[in-house]
Structure formats: structure tokens, C-alpha cells
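Possible regression after last week's pipeline update?

I re-ran a chain I had predicted before the update to compare outputs. Posting the input and the new output here so someone can diff against the archived version. Not blocking, just want to make sure nothing changed silently.
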Amino acid sequence: MGVLTELSLEDAGGLCERWGVALRTLAPVAAGSVNSSFALDGTDGARWFLRVYEEQGVDGARREAAMLAHLAARGVPTPFPRALRDVPGTYVQLHRDKPAVLFPWVPGTMACQRSVTAGRAFAVGQALARVHRAGEGLVGLQPSRFGPEALRLRLEALRGVDLTRELRGVVDGLLARIEALDPRTTPRDQGLIHGDLFRDNVLWEGDALTALLDFESASLGSFVFDLLVTVLAWCYGDALDLALARRMVEGYRAERALSAREVAELPEAARRAALRFTVTRVTDFELRRGAGGVYKDYRRFLGRLQALEALGSPRLLEGLGLS
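New output (post-update):
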């Protein structure tokens, strides 16, 4: 997306002074779909990444920055936010009444679907497990904004919207799936989940994973739900690649064991993961189509949901090496 909040070199210099950074250059970064981002060069040659939160309030930005500091200190490959020079342990300041946080620049590139190898799938699974383990001890985690009731309300809000016949059928089908969910099969909340570990939220140098990014959807949630969000993001091209998915699960299990209960919850977690992203792509992207910015096609996740339904739980668990 484009930068929504303008930032001059002079304004950025004033912000950076409180972070103890002398600024030389500033350039907008056309990445992400929610926040405004900038690449900064310091006079000492160090490079920085500045995020201005467009939707997250100050309290939310503070929680996220503290969480990232907690994770980075425990070995999760994610940038450690820069603390204010005059207020140790504080990471957030305001620019035009919006929270801003400074991070060290992490070199690397994002993986396209064709470049997702078995080795990379294993590394992503392992890194996600480290997030789940490192999140222990965090307090005040917020529940997900994308639970079944929240998804239902998103779709119900489209009742009075003029939709194409095709899209109306999709919305009605998604509502029916949500209504059919059995609360008894809901994967239980366990701790911190990333919630959005897609390919554009991981950086690589060669086959080495250098950083996990964008924890804005992080919340209290189910670990197997988070694992299957990641599997469906990385291991699905035109179809679900069970060989890649198995390697990702193996990477996860190399760092953190899955309990028998988690394995039993996994197929339902997979369906709920696909449902969550199908709904949000309809409500957040399909209805804004043609308005500029990043477009994310809901059909990609509707296809995942249909593939999981066709595959069935026993074959999914077998393909992942869990039966």
C-alpha cells in the first residue's frame, strides 16, 4: 500500500532523536497493507525501519512492542524495538497522534510460492514453535479479533450490500459453515500465536531465515490453529502440497512436541484457519477491489477450505505424518 501518514525528514529526525539515532536519509517503503513504513539511514551507517501504526491505537502498539522485545530477548528471530533514550523500556512515541516504533533494519527477501522448499518449510515450522515457546510468561494477551462470532458479524454486515450473485452465494455459504461450527470442537486457547505468518512476513538470506515480521494479528489462541494458518499459507499453490506441509509440521515438532489432544484438534483447526482467511478476504479486500492498494483474492482461501473438506480428517493427519 502507499504511505498513509506523511513523514518529513525533519519530523523523522525529531522522532529519532528520542530514540538516540541521528538521521541522515528517509524513504517510504511500499510494503504491507495496514501501516505506513519507512526506511531510515543513520549518520553512523546503521539502517532502521520505522512503522507508523494506522489502525492500532497507542495501547495496542505498546503491547505489541513489549511483546516483540520479550520474544527477541528469548531467541525468536524478530527485530528488537528501539527503546526511547530518555525513558528506558518504552518503545512507542507519537507522530500526528499515531503510534510509531523504530526497529533495526533486517536484511533479507521474501519467498515467492515457487521458492518454498522443504528446507524452508521446516525452518518456518521451527521458528513458529519458538514463538509459541517464547510467549510463555506474557500476560494481558488479547483474544483474537477473528473468532467465529466476529467472522459471522463481518458477513452479516453484508446483508444490505449490493453483491454479485456469485459473491452473495459465497457469503451465504460461509455463513452456513460458521453456523455449523460445533463449539465442542473449538481448538482451545493456549498462549501467544502469530496469527498471520504468511510468506510476506518472513525474511530470508539464501535459505537462512533472518526474521519473522508483522505481529499485529498476534493474540491469545490455539497453537495448532496458528500452525495450520502457516501450513495453508506456505504449502498451497494450486493444491495442498502435503509433502511440504509434512516438513513444516516436522520442523515445528523438532522444537515443540504436539500433544495427543492437539493432534485431535488439528483438522478442525485447519478448517477454521481457511474459513478465517476466506471471510476476511471477502470483507477486507473483495469489497475494496478497484479502490487501489493490495488486492487479495478470497477464492485462494475458499479453494483451501474446499480442499480440506474434500481431503477429510484422516487423510490430512496421515499426510502430515500424525496418524
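Follow-up from reviewer: compared with the archived run. The two ends are 43 Å apart (CA to CA). Marking as no regression found.
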